[in-house]
Every structure is written in C-alpha cells, then in structure tokens.
Amino acid sequence: MVPQTVWLFTSASNDVVPDAHIPQAAFRTLAAGDRWVRTLKPSGMLTEYPMNIGVFEWATARGVFKPRRDDQRATPFIETFSDASQAHAHYELGELVSGCEQRGIPTEATVVWAFNGRGRRGCFPSAVFDDQYRAEDWIASIGASGTLTKLVIGDQGTSCDLAAALEFSAGRRVPEQRA
Predict the structure, then answer these.
(1) How far apart are CA 14 and CA 163, in angstroms?
(2) Does residue 131 fall inside a structural domain?
(3) pLDDT tens, residue order, the chain (179 aa)
(4) Which of 7, 24, 68, 147 pairs with 156 at a CA distance of 20 to 30 A?
(5) Which domain covers residue 41, as residue numbers?
C-alpha cells in the first residue's frame, strides 16, 4: 500500500538558520516544494515523509532497515531515525544538486506536526503526523525527547513558529516557561 506523504524542507546549515534541524516548510508535492526552493534559493534538503508513522517503524516494516543491536531499538536511536531510502532532493542556493521522484500519495492534511528528537543525531524529523494528539501519543509510546512543531502546508511554504513549538522529555510534554 502506498502511504500518504508530505514533503518537508530542512535547511543545510545552523550557521545560516537557527534551529536548522526544524523543518522550514511543508508541501503536498515535490513539485510545489521544488518551486518554493527555486524561488527563495535556500540550501538544504526536501524530503518525503510517510504520514502518521515514525520513520523507524516505516523503514523496519518495509524491510529497508533491520535493527541488529540493542541500541538500534532504543529511544535515542528511534527518536532521531531518518532513512536514506526516503525520497529526497538536495539543493544548493536554490539549485537542484541531486533529485528524486515522488513516491507517495500527497496528504490531504492542511497542517502537519513534525517531531525532531534530541538523541544521537537529531538533524532531520523522525515522524510527521496530521494531528497533534496522534503525534503526542507516538512520542509518549517511545519515551522520546525533542521538539514537536506545527507546519501549515501550502504552495508558498510556511515558517515555523518556534515560539509555539512543544518540547518533550522522556515522552512527556515539558511545561512552558513563563517570563
């Protein structure tokens, strides 16, 4: 079965974009994401994510990743897992360096929630959901620590509101700090 998917753009450099590991934009299709990148000319990666499942679970279910050691079944690994078999396109200053083709069915969602773990390499989202509570249930189920951000899907892209991002530690939401 072909999953519904969403495309997320992640910046190439923390030097240029603070919190570069947090996706900067979400798109229904590769073509929409490609237009946005070519217009704004950022450097980074446009990656296709399956909806409503962690990338680790998706990759293991498809047989493209097989955990061989205990640490590969542990939360720090799962909460930051990304897979090279995900369709992805690399861009340098808006120019396509290496491309791909869309594999999934474009999501019908208008908003997505992307989770970035704090574990061993948290540079790419490890799961994307169409519902905040579904995302929080997944985070709690694996005891993850990291950041859950809301992105509005659109042809023009979107900016993440990091002030509205939700932080998690060991699967629980961290209370907001009041100034």
Answers:
(1) 18
(2) yes
(3) 678 999 999 887 655 555 657 888 899 999 999 999 999 999 999 999 999 999 999 999 999 999 999 999 999 999 999 888 999 999 999 999 998 999 999 999 988 999 999 866 657 899 999 999 999 999 999 999 999 999 988 766 565 556 568 888 989 999 876 55
(4) 147
(5) 4-173
